[in-house]
Write a structure and sequence with these properties.
Order of helices and strands: EHEEEEHEHEHE
Helix content: 10-25%
Radius of gyration: 16 Å
Strand order of the largest sheet: 5-2-1-6-7-8
Strand content: 15-25%
Structural class: alpha/beta
Number of helices: 4
C-alpha cells in the first residue's frame, strides 16, 4: 500500500509545454505514460497547472520584447516568455493522455503582476500558493516530483519544498528541461545543495 505520508507532485504537464505548444519543452510528452504509471504508487497525487491571464507581466509581448530575454521586476530578474498557458485555452489544458484524477490541482501564475514557477510560492518567494498548508494538514512530509520543466518549475518547487522541511525526490527520468544558457546544470546543482534527492 502507498505510504500515507508521501505524495506525488505532477508539475505542469500541459499542452503549451509539450511539442507543438507555445513554450514547448523537447520531449515533454514522452514522460506522460511513466507519470501515469507512477501515480499508482502514491496515496496522494497533486497536479500543478500554469494558469496565466492574457497579457501577463511575464510575457515578452507585454513588454514589446523578444521572448527569452529578461527584465527587472520588483521581485527580481524575470525571463520574458512567449504567451503560454492562458486561462481557459487549449494550451493551458493538461496533456490529453495525462491522468488528472489526483487529489488536488494547484493553479499558479494567475496574478498578472508576478510569475509563479514554484508550486509553493510566487516568484517573490513569500506569497504562498496554499500547497504547504494542504500537505501539513494531510500529514504529508515526503514528496516525489515529476514534470515540466526540470530547470524552472520543477527546480523551484523542489528547492522550496526542501527549504520548508519536506523530504524531496526529483525523478529526472520523468522530467524534461528547457536548458537555456546552462539553466539545467545550475538547477541540478541548486537542488542537490538544497538537499533534494535527484534520481
Amino acid at each position: 500500500m502507498p505510504a500515507p505520508n508521501e505524495a506525488l507532485l505532477v508539475i505542469d504537464i500541459q499542452n503549451d509545454f509539450c511539442p507543438g505548444g507555445a513554450l514547448a519543452v523537447t520531449g515533454g510528452d514522452e514522460i506522460v505514460p511513466g507519470v501515469n504509471q507512477l501515480m499508482d504508487d502514491f496515496a496522494t497525487v497533486i497536479l500543478t497547472q500554469d494558469w496565466h491571464p492574457a497579457g501577463h507581466s511575464s510575457f515578452a509581448s507585454s513588454h514589446k520584447a523578444e521572448p527569452f530575454t529578461t527584465t527587472q521586476m520588483p521581485y527580481g530578474t524575470q525571463v520574458l516568455w512567449p504567451d503560454h498557458c492562458i486561462q481557459g485555452t487549449e494550451g493551458a489544458a493538461f496533456h490529453k493522455d495525462l491522468r488528472v484524477d489526483g487529489d488536488l490541482i494547484i493553479r499558479k501564475g494567475f496574478n498578472p503582476e508576478i510569475d509563479s514557477y514554484s508550486a509553493f510560492f510566487e516568484n517573490d518567494h513569500t506569497t504562498p500558493t496554499g500547497l504547504e498548508g494542504y500537505l501539513r494538514t494531510r500529514g504529508i512530509d515526503r514528496l516525489t516530483m515529476v514534470g515540466l520543466a526540470t530547470d524552472f518549475c520543477v527546480n523551484f518547487s523542489a528547492v522550496d519544498a526542501a527549504k520548508l522541511g519536506f523530504a524531496v525526490t526529483v525523478r529526472t527520468d520523468l522530467c524534461r528541461a528547457i536548458d537555456m544558457d546552462g539553466s539545467l546544470a545550475a538547477a541540478m546543482d541548486g537542488m542537490k545543495q538544497a538537499g533534494v534527492e535527484v534520481l
